[in-house]
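Retro notes, item 3 of 5
We never archived the inputs for the iron/sulfur cluster complex last cycle. Fixing that now. Sequence and ligand:
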Amino acid sequence: MEEKKIYLSINGKEVASAPSQTILEVARENKVFIPTLCDCQNLSPFGACRLCLVEVAGLPKLVPACSTPVAAGMKIRTDSEKIDQYRRLIVELLLSDHEPDCMFCEKAGDCLLQDLAYQYGLKNSRLKGERRAALIDDSNPFIERDNSKCILCGRCVRVCDEVQGVSAIGFIGRGFQTRIGTPFNRKLNCEFCGQCIASCPVGALTSKPARRKGRKWQTRWVKTICPYCGCGCNLTLHIKDNEIVGVHSDSSSPNEGYLCSKGRFGYEFVHHPDRLQFPLIRKGGQLVRAEWYEALRLVATKFQEIKSRHGNNTLAGLSSAKCTNEENYLFQKFVRAVLGTNNVDHCARL
Ligand code: SF4
Ligand code: SF4
Ligand code: SF4
Ligand code: FES
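Structure as it came back at the time:
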């Protein structure tokens, strides 16, 4: 059942909203920009960064837009000198204990903190926080965590828990020494889906296979479908010098930007030197390069020999979930009409 609409105003303009929405959701629907760091699509509001603070008439304090529900008649201001001062101070506080490594950082050019520092003209922070030691965890083949760049937005913790259902990581410690890590400081041993990397707004979590191979924005992007299981998740490949150097998935795709470890990290096979690129026929115990017509003729002859010697039902066909429906239709037609057997199956149940 459709929710009854309520009416409120944002920056003097009347807008309609469902009563269950937050101020941030209604602002976005109405193309009003509110900066955020800890907010992330599909994750529960966390209210950690306070960057989304807005004014609501009648309330004594600024409120976080991401976690404040709207109410009928609310009068909201999303920008004013006071709000600007608060947001600037929040960015300064974040920079006060942040390792400014933008020259070398994998995320430079695609980092929300860097964008905010640029927006507020903050080259250095007036404030000096206690720095976390450069605590780099690269004890696994896929993910590097650099806690000296972490802004404690909690996006990685929430995506691991709420989307992936793994809860491999959490907050550890107090004050300036708070960091994200695994229980009992064990080596990260999880599903390696990389959802945490994709959710991180700064350079604290990065993909090891993509390291130093080109920043995301320096690559050419090619949209495609994951070549593994039958789910067919959308991928965007990052191409540099004709080589796949990274992968991401759009949050607007049917898989909502989420991938598994194969889709996220399993692309190195594409350029592997051992990859089969042409047909090979075994001659005198050695595999020898052949032409396609030669290989296909040999296979057809062998099929005919098996059929006439042992019967049609000694043959079977197994097709791939990665073929199109039309290709799979043709394949089963070939198996039934040409090989003369109903022994045909498909790996879509992967
Ligand atoms: S995380 Fe962002 S702000 Fe920090 S060093 Fe990297 S690019 Fe610069
Ligand atoms: S890779 Fe996936 S399972 Fe592992 S910590 Fe990140 S989100 Fe959690
Ligand atoms: S690692 Fe990234 S996503 Fe996780 S809390 Fe730190 S900044 Fe946020
Ligand atoms: S986005 Fe609202 S508090 Fe971080």
